[in-house]
Amino acid sequence: MMSAASLRRPSAPKAYVLGIHVVTWNVASAAPTVDLSDLLQLNNQNLNLDIYIIGLQEMNSGIISLLSDTAFEDPWTSFFMNTLSPLNFVKISQVRMQGLLLLVFAKYQHLPFIQIISTKSTPTGLYGYWGNKGGVNICLKLYGYYVSIVNCHLPPHMSNNDQRLEHFDRILESQTFEGYDIPNILDHDLILWFGDMNFRIEDFGLLFVQESITKRYYRELWEKDQLSIAKRRDPLLREFQEGPLLFPPTYKFDRHSNNYDTSEKKRKPAWTDRILWRLKRQPQASPLVSSLPTSYFLLTLKSYISHMMYSISDHKPVTGTFNLELNPLMSVPLITIMPECLWTMENDMLISYASNPEFLSSPWDWIGLYKVGMRHINDYVSYAWVGDNQVSYGNNPNQVYINISDVPETEDQFLLCYYSNNLHSVVGISQPFKIPLRFFLRDDALCDPEPQI
Questions:
Q1: Count of alpha carbons within 13 angstroms of residue 397, beta-carbon side
Q2: Is 220 left (phi over 0), alpha (psi -120 to 50) or beta?
Q3: How far apart are CA 247 and CA 270, in angstroms?
Q4: Can you state the percent helix, strand and coil of the chain, rounding each to 5?
Q5: Residues 6 or more apart whose Cβ sits within 8 Å of residue 168
Q6: How far apart are CA 243 and CA 53, in angstroms?
Q7: Which of 100, 175, 344, 389 is the most exposed place for a label (fewest CB within 10 A)?
Q8: Which residues form a coiled coil (predicted)?
Q9: Phi, psi (5° rounding) for residue 122?
Q10: What is the pLDDT of residues 113-168, one digit of tens each?
Q11: Hey, which residues does 382 pair with through a beta bridge?
């Protein structure tokens, strides 16, 4: 186990522990034609993961591809959703800028405690405006804590190290949240920053680097890694931590092989693909206090590896697996949903829900009926506008009805989710339940306009 913070851990009470798996991969325009089990650690029985964070670079970003992906889901997003949704992971947010894609998945039971604050793109490419380089960011509140996630693609080539550092600073400075009561990104509890950072190995020649890799002598190469050098010189960059590089450089490989570049250019191998994190400084707990402080947030790195089995790109993917231990600042959902199993002759299901006094509802709030195993929040089988479908209002619990005439007769389990338009997030979720088959009546129902996020 590799500790990621020096905070002394109080002995009691026990905090929540969330398993987080971070993926970064420059896919070099390749299509998702491979088994992702190793990348996502699906066969690792010792892992109990709650959140997947996936960042890709150099997705196919031609005009035709972008137009197609605007109208339909891009192939990589669909591939990840198809793989993770049967395991009860729901895509909760995504942001794309040309070839950069950032996806966040979470187990459905965590949805009421994850609020998406913002998504942002920062282009730093040609003349500072082209999106082939730069960063994409998702800012969220996780059990009351601020977390910023950044997937980046920095300038290539050995000689552009200063430019890489400049773009890193520019992406960081662009993470402002005007109009929101949100602290500066450097005051967020956690920043996860990863991607194809394109840092290279200085001074040593190609043959020395190749021989060192063959013998697994990485220590001298680390000393000349441009990111390692920059962290020794830059106080802010030094605050970003990284696990030890115990895997071979992840760039540049001949496609469909584990051989480093054999083309005429013979590019020198480098650790271009990296995962960094930064924890907000916390006051040390008093040794006389035995309980957890109100704000307690500890990240521990469990694994930092590359995946050599994937060869569709000239980069190998890199993953970091973490345990996030926290004392939740939010442990009760804003909405508590109770399916009552009461029905009318019009195929309507009566739903009772109670709201937290702090919750501010909107006429555009809606409740969706989902099959367990849903892919994303728009993957409902039926829905009801809370404002339009009210049966009773004002006294907790409130009641609304939802039409099930379009729901197929099935023994599947279902969930109800309350979506808040103001918070752009799910704020309440029911326990899984089955709809008794005797309640499926086949009457034609009027179609309401579908809710949009």
A1: 14
A2: alpha
A3: 11
A4: 15, 35, 50
A5: 152, 154, 197, 237
A6: 17
A7: 344
A8: none
A9: -125, 95
A10: 999 999 999 998 765 555 679 999 999 999 999 999 999 999 999 999 999 999 99
A11: 369
